[in-house]
Specification:
Blueprint (H helix, E strand, L loop, with lengths): L2 E3 L3 H11 L5 E3 L5 H5 L3 E2 L4 E2 L3 E4 L5 E5 L7 H13 L1
Parallel strand pairs: 1-2
Antiparallel strand pairs: 3-4, 5-6
Length: 86
C-alpha cells in the first residue's frame, strides 16, 4: 500500500504521524507528476481529486474509487481487498 499526496513531504509526515500510518507516502508536491499520470491533478486548485486504486502486484487494476469520501472508505477498500484476495 502506498499513499500519494500533492502536499509537501513535511505535511505528509505530520499527517501520517497524527493518524498512525505505517505505509509510505509519496509527496507529489510541485509539478504533480503522479497526480497528472493518474488523471487526478487539479492544478488550478492546487490539490488532487481523492481517488483510490486497487492494483495487483502484477499491475492489474482491480478497482477504482473516484471522489473518495474519507468516512467509511478504508472499511470499504479492506472489504473489497478481502473479496479479491480472500
Amino acid at each position: 500500500m502506498i499513499g500519494a499526496s500533492v502536499d509537501k513531504p513535511e505535511a505528509n509526515a505530520r499527517w501520517a504521524e497524527k493518524h498512525g500510518l505505517r505505509m509510505p507516502l509519496v509527496s507529489d508536491h510541485g509539478e504533480h507528476v503522479v497526480a497528472s499520470a493518474f488523471g487526478v491533478a487539479r492544478p488550478r486548485v492546487g490539490v488532487a481529486k481523492r481517488t483510490t486504486w486497487i492494483i495487483d502486484p502484477d499491475g492489474t487494476l482491480r478497482r477504482v474509487y473516484p471522489a473518495v469520501k474519507p468516512k467509511g472508505h478504508a472499511a470499504t477498500v479492506l472489504a473489497d481487498c478481502r473479496e479479491i484476495w480472500g
